[in-house]
Amino acid sequence: MVAPQSIPQRLQTRTDTTAQSGPVGEAANRFNNAFSDGLRLFLDGNWEGLYDHLTSGALYLLGLLTERGLQSLAAFLLLYIIYRALYLASERALDRSDSIEPGLQSLLLKTFRVASFFFIGTVVLDQLGVNVAVLVGGLGIAGIVAGFAARDSLENFIAGVTVLVDKPFQVGDYIEIGDQYGQVDEITLRSTRLRTVRNRTMVLPNTHMITQELMNHTKRNVLRIDVSFGIAYKEVPDEARAALLSLFEGDDRVLTEPAPSVVVTEMADSSVNMALRFYTRNPDQEVPLRWEYTEKVREKLREADIEIPFPHRQLFLDEAKALQGSDLLAPADDPANGEGPSAE
User: In what residue span(s) does the Mechanosensitive ion channel MscS C-terminal domain sit (predicted)?
Assistant: First the structure.
């Protein structure tokens, strides 16, 4: 009986056929052939030949794995060192840039990191003998399927990029969206986080941030605060104006230019509605200043003896024959309604 060829011998004779199939196909063919030969030796009971066959196969696989492993390790270390150098340089350059906000800086660095690791992984797998082209094609198909499955997340991602590029607001801005008001704490690719006046964190999807009406209270640097109030019709608006404008003396939080003002805004049913208007450069003081001066307006009007009316109605009855003889139309001093003089 002719002893089967060892693994190195068989590999040498099949060089032409396996070279066309690539490293992965070559390794698969070698393993199949070696397994077939080992099974035949086992069935024939050729234990010495089986021992030699397994020994030579193990040594060959060890050498193959060692060679490709060292190549892959060297490629990984070299590319990783280059990646770290480029990443640190990019991070320092972005930190020194005043035109790129922190949210966009984070997006650029994360994108660079993902692209770099994808490239490094591709090179390492190629050194290990993996058919990278087939792998990338499969990942592309899987990415399309995942995109349909995670459509909402993809929409939020695109909206997050839009927010970071268009800059309708930035981290630290005070914004109002819908009936919510707060300071922007963080902008991510999926959501925006606001800190409310109650010190709560509100997480809003980025699609919500670009589709809803949004008011930025910080963008213009100077912010006007309005405090609405009303006075009775018998009062004189100039007197209320003179009394309230004196409130700002010594308050450095309020700008002198544009100057504070008090204007009439409406002739309402029960009051003459007015507004105290003043400007500040501290958007973070908007809510505290509004609360503070709302109370000051009330106290100042009370000190100046200017009436702040409340809604009321007067009802006049003309020829109310249906109510004649009832207690509603009885004179104030009529004993029938219990308000007349008491008998002694």
Answer: 225-308
Comparing CA positions, the residue from 130, 127, 151, 128 lying closest to residue 139 is 130
258, 243, 162, 245: which is closest to 205 by C-alpha? Answer: 162
List all residues 6 or more positions away from 301 whose beta carbon is below 8 Å from its beta carbon: 229, 231, 240, 243, 244, 308
100-121 residue pLDDT tens: 767 677 777 888 888 888 888 8
| Distance of alpha carbon 188 from alpha carbon 159, whole angstroms | 10
Task: For residue 308, give every residue at least 6 positions away whose Cβ sits within 8 Å of its Cβ, in sequence order, or none.
Answer: 229, 230, 231, 232, 271, 298, 301, 302
Cα–Cα nearest to 154, from 189, 186, 126, 119: 189
Strand partners, 196: 182
DSSP-derived 3-state class of residue 132: helix
Domains of the chain with CATH codes: 7-78 (no CATH), 161-216 (2.30.30.60), 220-338 (3.30.70.100)
Per-residue model confidence as pLDDT tens digits over 11-60: 444 444 444 445 555 555 665 666 676 667 667 666 766 666 667 666 66
H or E element that contains 300: helix 286-303
Among positive and negative, which fits the CA dihedral 216, 219, 224, 225?
positive
Nearest-5° Cα angle at 281, 276 to 283: 85
Task: Reduce the DSSP state of residue 165 to 3 states and report it.
Answer: helix
Among candidates 12, 10, 13, 7, which has minimal Cα distance to 52? 7
**What does DSSP assign to residue 53?**
H
For every residue of 171-223, DSSP letters joined together read: TT-EEEETTEEEEEEEE-SSEEEEEETTS-EEEEEHHHHHHS-EEESSTTS-E
- Paired sense of beta strands 261-267 and 201-205, if any: unpaired
Per-residue confidence band for 123, with pLDDT thresholds at 50, 70 and 90: confident
| Nearest alpha-carbon partner for 226 in 266, 194, 197 | 266
Ranges 150-164, 191-205, 278-292, 312-326: which has the least confidence: 312-326
